[in-house]
Design goal:
By secondary structure, the chain is mainly β. The longest helix has 10 residues. The N terminus and C terminus are likely disordered. The protein contains 1 helix and 20 strands. It comes from Desmophyllum pertusum.
């Protein structure tokens, strides 16, 4: 009688002291600045339990079959330094720690593309806005991503690229000056040296962009030079330091980042409380009283004998 013995080799199993199984479950468990932590499980014995003999491991990794690097480690893990924008094939095999001549076979390839090690998106994006005159300071905060796009633990030191865009749908070249003026412009003088100016918003169809603020123009009658005050995004202004009894003209315009738009209809007022447009509506008694307290009104207008003061 002739007996024939056959040994069936199964992946990952070790049958004899001089035959080592294959490391299994190769994976990248963490990354730090393109240094990856590679882990695997010990080879199994024929009984299906981990091989508890003293093992070391050879780890090789290469990109495109060139620049093969090799490590020998004594644990089921290894740190590998990779290069950005490269693809790697990584192999591991077990060896007897006491006798490196006794070796197992290589594991299957673990393919790692460093593009897949990119950090995940920042989370919990928050924004605060602080205005200072014509400018705004926007503070943006977010939570640091803790994993890669593939869900691998990531402890890398990160830098961030912050992109932002104007919410206006118009392109830069299509912005225009405001084609309409602020609405409801009013002027009131309740002190001997000031004028309070107020106005409403520019109609939406005439803004032609984002309104950044307003300019109040004013000048004394007889002067050709306009003074101006930039008041950003408010809707009233008190002009102070004016000369009592003098006639002043006031107009208001809005502006975008392209420039100043259409001015409002000019308003006129005499500093001290009398609106110039209402002078002709005064009766004689009120007019004489006004003339007595305002420095000579003859400098502001001419008497018309046809109008009964």
């Amino acid at each position: 009688m002739c007996l024939t013995w056959a040994m069936i080799s199964l992946p990952g199993f070790s049958y004899a002291s001089n035959t080592l199984g294959i490391p299994t479950d190769l994976r990248v468990t963490s990354v730090h600045d393109l240094t990856i932590m590679l882990t695997w499980k010990r080879p199994l014995t024929t009984a299906g339990t981990p091989d508890n003999s003293s093992l070391s491991y050879i780890v090789t990794f290469s990109s495109g079959g060139i620049n093969i690097e090799r490590q020998i480690v004594t644990t089921e893990s290894a740190q590998l330094d990779l290069v950005v924008n490269k693809q790697y094939n990584i192999f591991v095999k077990a060896i007897q720690r006491a006798n490196h001549q006794i070796q197992g076979v290589w594991s299957g390839a673990l393919r790692v593309d460093t593009k897949d090690l990119a950090p995940a998106k920042p989370a919990n994006l928050q924004m605060t806005n602080r205005r200072n005159g014509l400018t705004s300071t926007i503070t943006v905060r977010w939570d640091k991503p803790r994993t890669t796009v593939q869900g691998i633990t990531d402890t890398s030191i990160l830098k961030y690229y912050v992109a932002y865009t104007n919410l206006e749908s118009k392109r830069e070249g299509k912005y225009q000056l405001p084609s309409k003026s602020p609405t409801s412009v009013k002027v009131v003088s309740s002190t001997p040296s000031s004028i309070n100016v107020s106005w409403g918003p520019i109609p939406k169809e005439g803004r032609n962009g984002i309104i950044l603020g307003f300019v109040v123009f004013y000048r004394e009658d007889g002067s050709s030079k306009w003074s101006e005050r930039d008041v950003t995004l408010v809707y009233s202004l008190e002009l102070t330091g004016l000369t009592a009894g003098k006639l002043y003209y006031v107009t208001v315009a809005g502006y975008t980042k392209i420039g100043r738009g259409t001015k409002s209809t000019r308003k006129s007022i005499i500093v001290g409380g009398i609106h110039f447009n209402d002078i002709h509506n005064l009766n004689k008694q009120t007019f004489l009283f006004a003339r007595s307290i305002l420095f000579p009104l003859e400098t502001c207008f001419r008497f018309d004998p046809k109008i009964p003061y």
